[in-house]
Recover the amino acids of this structure.
């Protein structure tokens, strides 16, 4: 494992003056030591994990080595009001370009309705929305770092920038900026309950790793 993967640092959340941070996986400046309450601000946020998840200083490593689902779920304090808009920001590195397994990033409300989702597999980024599941861009086999901003308002808005692993956001892009918008999967999406990052469609004995850096969510 390279040092750059271990030290993976996510993008800064887009926080406007009227926005409130409700989840920050690195609220204390480093990644959590494991499942449970997330140290540092904001208060009340927590995470849970299933399957094979390793916590490595600056990132979490999700392993797809069996037929079981591996993933992490981030939850805000239950009392964070009824925002009109959420902004999710995270960084990641995927080591596979095969069609399976699929890394799925999904945002659910308190009624378990999906607002927006992003699938990463087979060299593609796919937006999951009210329009179904559609390819919005590609990634290479070079294990570059991708930095994702997903905004959930009356629609799903996504922005993805890719950099050479370990080089930082001010380095040259390794692919054109990806931008897309689509209707929400659930038009009546309510209060955010969790953000889930998990391997899906895992085939036994097909190893894969996804390195997840800092993940933040702000509400407005």
């Amino acid at each position: 494992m390279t040092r750059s993967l271990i030290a993976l640092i996510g993008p800064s959340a887009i926080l406007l003056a009227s926005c409130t941070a409700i989840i920050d996986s690195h609220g204390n400046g480093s990644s959590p030591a494991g499942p449970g309450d997330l140290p540092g601000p904001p208060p009340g946020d927590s995470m849970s994990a299933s399957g094979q998840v390793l916590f490595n200083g600056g990132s979490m490593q999700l392993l797809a080595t069996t037929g079981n689902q591996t993933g992490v779920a981030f939850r805000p304090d239950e009392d964070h009001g009824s925002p009109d808009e959420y902004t999710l920001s995270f960084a990641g590195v995927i080591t596979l370009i095969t069609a399976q397994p699929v890394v799925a990033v999904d945002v659910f409300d308190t009624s378990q309705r999906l607002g927006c989702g992003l699938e990463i597999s087979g060299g593609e980024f796919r937006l999951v929305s009210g329009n179904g599941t559609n390819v919005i861009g590609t990634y290479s086999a070079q294990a570059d770092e991708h930095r994702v901003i997903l905004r959930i308002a009356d629609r799903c808005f996504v922005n993805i920038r890719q950099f050479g692993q370990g080089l930082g956001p001010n380095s040259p892009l390794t692919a054109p900026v990806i931008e897309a918008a689509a209707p929400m999967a659930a038009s009546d999406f309510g209060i955010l309950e969790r953000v889930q990052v998990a391997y899906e469609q895992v085939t036994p004995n097909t190893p894969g790793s996804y390195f997840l850096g800092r993940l933040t969510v702000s509400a407005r």
Notes: The helical segments are 3-6. Residues 3-6 form the longest helix (4 residues). Residues 1-17 have pLDDT under 50 and may be disordered. Residues 48-166 form one domain.
